[in-house]
């Protein structure tokens, strides 16, 4: 049984695909997809030994060692050409780390048609990566679960480059087009947080002007979208 967050990620894994789940932890996602007969197999990658052993254990327990390989590796280095991976999931990390992982071993994405990325924070960095690395967003979701708000970004390989506006990058083109309650909650909270930081800065003696200007611009951008 997957969390709503991982179930949303799972929804976008194409049927019959060969999946690499990078930072898999317990390998819950790929094992669940195999149980439901939705993927052919793939790789569960982990850079930390403890979670890697959890993944190995789970795969063995559920009887999928023939279809799913756990690999102890940094990021995309878990993917070998002979795995024929066509879909990559990176979920439950910050946007900075997700972007680093994708950039570091970009060549390993040869053959990958779809990326499903679930940044906990910093989704704009992930969208910026997609825009500049031959992928285009095809769907986005935002959801609230257990007091957290999560974004899921789905992107496919493209030969026609896409350009996202500053608003698209920050808020997500699909989320902007159909803002739901989670979207409004997230950005209302962000606006309040930015406002509070600005007030603290203005109360302080030395105000870093550039930083204030950036935050002001951010606040304006958020408020315009929330209107
Ligand atoms: N993907 C699962 C999910 O969404 O529920 C687990 C998320 S867990 C919060 C993040 C996992 O990513 C951790 O198990 C961590 O060890 C792993 N991780 C962090 N950096 C990594 C990297 N460079 N390569 C592979 N795994 C990484």
What features would you describe in this structure?
The protein is of the alpha/beta class and 227 residues long. The chain has two domains: 4-163, Vaccinia Virus protein VP39 (Rossmann fold, 3-Layer(aba) Sandwich), CATH 3.40.50.150; 183-226. The chain is 44% helix and 23% strand. It has helices spanning 4-11, 28-35, 49-61, 95-104, 123-132, 166-171, 173-177, 181-203, 209-226; strands at residues 17-22, 39-46, 68-72, 87-93, 114-119, 135-145, 148-157. The longest helix is centred in the last third of the chain and has 23 residues, at 181-203. It is elongated. The structure holds S-adenosylmethionine (SAM).
- Compounds present? S-adenosylmethionine
Main sheet?
7 strands, mixed
Poorly predicted segments: none
Number of domains: 2
Helical proportion, percent range: 40-55%
Mean pLDDT: 96
CATH architecture of the largest domain: 3-Layer(aba) Sandwich
Query: What's the end-to-end separation, in Å?
Result: 38 Å
- What is Rg? 19 Å
Strand order of the largest sheet: 3-2-1-4-5-7-6
Helix/strand-derived class? alpha/beta
Topology (SSEs and partners):
Blueprint: H1 4-11, E1 17-22, H2 28-35, E2 39-46, H3 49-61, E3 68-72, E4 87-93, H4 95-104, E5 114-119, H5 123-132, E6 135-145, E7 148-157, H6 166-171, H7 173-177, H8 181-203, H9 209-226
Parallel strand pairs: 1-2, 1-4, 2-3, 4-5
Antiparallel strand pairs: 5-7, 6-7
Helix pairs in contact: 4-5, 8-9
The structure holds S-adenosylmethionine.
S-adenosylmethionine (SAM) is lined by residues 6, 22-25, 45-48, 51, 74-75, 91-93, 97, 101.
Summarize it.
The protein has 227 residues and is of the alpha/beta class. It is 44% helix and 23% strand.
């Amino acid at each position: 049984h997957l969390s709503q967050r991982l179930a949303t990620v799972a929804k976008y894994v194409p049927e019959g695909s060969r999946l690499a789940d990078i930072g898999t932890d317990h390998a819950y996602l790929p094992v669940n997809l195999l149980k439901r007969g939705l993927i052919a197999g793939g790789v569960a990658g982990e850079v930390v030994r403890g979670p890697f052993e959890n993944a190995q254990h789970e795969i063995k327990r559920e009887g999928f060692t023939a279809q799913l390989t756990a690999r102890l590796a940094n990021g995309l280095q878990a993917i070998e050409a002979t795995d024929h991976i066509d879909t990559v999931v990176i979920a439950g990390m910050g946007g900075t780390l997700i972007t680093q992982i994708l950039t570091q071993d970009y060549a390993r994405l040869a053959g990958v048609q779809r990326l499903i990325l679930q940044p906990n924070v910093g989704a704009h960095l992930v969208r910026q990566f997609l825009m500049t690395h031959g992928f285009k967003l095809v769907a986005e979701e935002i959801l609230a679960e257990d007091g957290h708000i999560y974004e899921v970004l789905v992107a496919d390989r493209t030969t026609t480059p896409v350009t996202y506006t500053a608003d698209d990058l920050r808020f997500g083109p699909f989320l902007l087009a159909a803002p739901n309650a989670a979207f409004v909650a997230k950005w209302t909270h962000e606006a309040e947080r930015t406002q509070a930081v600005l007030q603290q800065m203005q109360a302080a003696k030395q105000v870093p002007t550039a930083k204030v200007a950036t935050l002001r611009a951010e606040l304006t951008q958020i408020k315009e979208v929330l209107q």
